[in-house]
Amino acid sequence: VNKIIKKLETLFTPKIKLWSKLEYLDANSLESSKSILAGLKKENIVLFEKFLKATKHLLQISNEDIFGNKKDKKIKSSRNNKIDKIYKDRLKTLHNEILDYLSFANANINSADLKSIDSQKNTTKKIYSYLKEIRKISKDIEESSSQNSHIKDEYKYLREIFFICLKEIENISSNNFDDIDKIFKAKTLKQKLNSLDNLTNQRVEKLIHETKIDAKQSTKLIKDSSFAMIILQEIIRISLFLYVKEPILIEEDEDEN
Q1: Measured between alpha carbons, how far is 175 from 43 in angstroms, rounded to an integer?
Q2: Among 5, 11, 32, which Cα is nearest to 109's?
Q3: CA 94 to chain centre
Q4: Which of 43, 52, 65, 225 gives 20 to 30 Å between its CA and that of 159?
Q5: CA quadruple 229, 222, 131, 98: dihedral, nearest 10
Q6: What residues have CB less than 8 Å from 184, skipping those under 6 apart?
């Protein structure tokens, strides 16, 4: 027992204060697979909420946007880029510490809980990997500021789609709704994303028809937009996985579609 405690003390030494310290996985969690699973889900919720915050900063979505006072976003300052890096490093640290804990706790996991823990572990990895993808999208949006006004407007529109989606995901993650309401909101949001995706393609086709952009530009616009939609759909799935208390309801809903 003493060896385990010493190992955990070194494991949980925060590399970055406030963010990196695991809150729900500790020596007490090793008592059973169930306690490891419960702690892991809570840690993933913390990681996901930090991910949402980092995403909003990357895309320069602020409280002003949330309350409708939207302004054109200027190219990021070096200070903002440094803050983006801090978010990334902190998220990476928390991601790594969760995985380190699971590697150490593996011997305490029984076969009955292995599948559920593996699902949560995969979610840990996905959350961090999606931050990397959001960084690419953020770079595309920022680089569009130096292109013609039509391309710039399309990337601004893509940013608006992120704003709509992230705001609704934050609603889903709140405790103001029951499981059925959360699933309904997620389904509605997915349908809205599909509609927005179709609308984006129509807008791009119109720009080509009016010779306001060329084929190369249209291909990149459609590719970037489609990629963003895939990422957003995956983020919605993660929000349901983490915030719906009864997984069977998600499975039943998926079976109906």
Answers
A1: 17
A2: 32
A3: 14
A4: 43
A5: 50
A6: none
pLDDT in tens, the chain (257 residues): 556 555 555 554 433 334 447 999 988 888 899 999 999 999 999 999 999 999 999 998 875 554 444 555 555 555 566 767 777 888 999 999 999 999 988 888 999 999 999 999 999 999 999 999 999 999 999 888 888 899 999 999 999 999 999 999 998 888 778 889 999 999 999 999 999 999 999 999 999 999 999 999 999 999 999 999 999 999 999 999 999 987 766 666 565 55
DSSP 170: H
- The 8-class DSSP code of residue 76 comes to P
Using the CB atoms, write b or e for 228-255: b if 16+ within 10 Å: bbebbbebbbbbbbbbbeeeebbeebee
Are 90 and 50 within 8 A, CB to CB?
yes
Residue 166 DSSP label:
H
Query: Do residues 215 and 186 lie in contact, with contact meaning Cβ atoms separated by under 8 Å?
Result: no
Residue whose C-alpha is closest to residue 56's, from 164, 151, 212: 164
